[in-house]
Amino acid sequence: MSEILFEKIALIGIGLIGSSLARVIRREGLTNHLAISTRSQATLDEARALHLGDSYCLDPRDAVHDADLVIISVPVGSSGAVAEQIAPALKPGAIVSDVGSTKASVIAQMQPHMPDHVHFIPGHPIAGTEKSGPAAGFAELFQGRWCILTPLPGTDQAAVERLGRFWEACGSRLDTMDPNHHDKVLAIVSHLPHIIAYNIVGTADDLETVTQSEVIKYSASGFRDFTRLAASDPVMWRDICLHNKDAILEMLARFSEDLASLQRAIRWGDGDKLFEMFTHTRDVRRSIIEAGQEVDLPDFGRQAATKN
Amino acid sequence: MSEILFEKIALIGIGLIGSSLARVIRREGLTNHLAISTRSQATLDEARALHLGDSYCLDPRDAVHDADLVIISVPVGSSGAVAEQIAPALKPGAIVSDVGSTKASVIAQMQPHMPDHVHFIPGHPIAGTEKSGPAAGFAELFQGRWCILTPLPGTDQAAVERLGRFWEACGSRLDTMDPNHHDKVLAIVSHLPHIIAYNIVGTADDLETVTQSEVIKYSASGFRDFTRLAASDPVMWRDICLHNKDAILEMLARFSEDLASLQRAIRWGDGDKLFEMFTHTRDVRRSIIEAGQEVDLPDFGRQAATKN
Q1: What would the pLDDT profile of A176-233 be if each residue is shown by its tens digit?
Q2: Which of A255, B11, B168, B202 is the most exposed place for a label (fewest CB within 10 A)?
Q3: SS3 B75
């Protein structure tokens, strides 16, 4: 148990990230009252059935009333509308943050609505799975993962530190970054991989020469790895593509350029070039494992997991 | 324990696949003598230290002498040279097979050297991890995975059935396929995914705007998934690219075409098209899990594996 960091916390949106936050806030005892709000009655009922919070409401204004910390966990395309809706109900001195995968767009959408008497501090925990909804969350999701805060110039440093302590209490490691740089970094480490995964699964789905059932039967030879990212929430990923367009298009251009050169090496049978390209990628995974960002087990630990 | 299927089995090549075969052959008691041969003294010593077989030799001719089943597990580019080398020493009536990821090229390389008095039956177990070498193998590797045999016209059916029983005793599910169709199927389910993974890891490695350490720190947001395939054996994958060129180039063209259309949807902010593209890919993973080819756990069971 950590200490009470905020008398009342409001979570707007209770999907994978929101419900994981609810679970770790409860486990660590970080608040005296956890208010949960989401647009859909069905999702709200699910959150209540899972006992994720202390109060539940469809209107986010009820949840943020008197809340000292408000965390918005909705698809990035909805953050502006939510900000506009909750603004009048926000408590003076409250910290308002989010978990969106794009920051420049979220800031552009939310900041105009934020009253001067609150601390608006955008954030992004680098954690997740391919699952969605309140039942998919778990308290360990943020353990050892990085959370990036992108505070705006002039933000109260004490408020930034307070939000940082909250994420650390949730198990996160903390970073701060310029919003535009965040969007470039995420475009390569998260957005491009998801887009490529969605694309290759789509390509395999559309072939005439190879049947769908063949793709599924033999997927253990590599293809199945891509289907995990491609099983992520379509609304979340549609919004990310719409709201981090420039950085994503830049990374896509680099990727396609490199792929054309690899394709040329295959066409011309340039074995030395292929060997060189396939060699220097190996160290990257080793570094990720050493950085504690990946399990040190073959095949993502699939074999080990099935032994449980 | 299954019954003795072959009095003597020779494994040429003792990497991930060869050493996994050795372990399951030993566990199931499928032979009275398991002979192991590999080019490198160091690898041979490693296999001996791991007690993978009954005899060990650098010269594959010594291993195949009197062997009733010979399985060649080497990079596909070396299968012709191995076939030529062992041909004079093969026992009449012996079954000679391989585990290569490309079949048309392996057949073209090996068949000319195969004496009429042996049964040459190409094969490919659809199983593996990103690890290489004798220490990386494990007896369960083939459990529930498919093994594809691509027998040539006029092959003795009894011999094909005997090889099939061997793979079933190793835990595999069995399929037969035309070699050229196999190469198209593998191009999409295995070769394209590996090439794309190698490429995206390469792209991330070459950026000026995002540092290597940022890519590693934040890789849990998607990128790390690709580093597994991109950590596979470079020689094996160089050879696959050189020996399944046409099918791979065909799949790369389809992939790039689809990616261009996805890129266009991002550029023009076509949210409906993006949503549609990101929706119909979800069922594919579900089908793979239902087919028993993927663990039914979020995040490949990484979380579950670390709980061991």
Answers
A1: 999 999 999 999 999 999 999 999 999 998 898 899 999 999 999 999 999 999 999 9
A2: B168
A3: coil
Could you tell me if A256 lies within 8 Å of chain B, comparing CB atoms? yes
**Which of A126, A239, A302 lies closest to B218 in CB terms?**
A126
* Matching residue, tokens 């590693």: B216
pTM greater than 0.90: yes
Chain A residue with minimum CA distance to B257: A203
**B36 backbone dihedrals φ, ψ, rounded to 5°:** -120, 130
Q: Does the A6-177 domain belong in CATH 3.40.630.30?
A: no
Which residues numbered 137-176 in A keep a CB inside 8 Å of some CB on B? 138, 140, 145-146, 148, 175
The secondary structure of residue B112, as a DSSP letter, is G
Please check whether residue A229 is in contact with residue B222, taking contact to mean a CB–CB distance below 8 angstroms: yes
Cβ distance A61 to A88 under 8 Å? yes
Nearest to B217 among A215, A222, A293 (CB): A293
Q: Of A278, A259, A276, whose CA–CA distance to A267 is shortest? A: A259
Q: Where are the domains of chain B?
A: 6-177, 181-307
In A, which residues are within 8 Å of B226 by CB distance? 193, 196, 225
Q: Which CATH architecture has domain A181-307?
A: Orthogonal Bundle (1.10)
The answer to whether A297 contacts chain B (CB < 8 Å) is yes
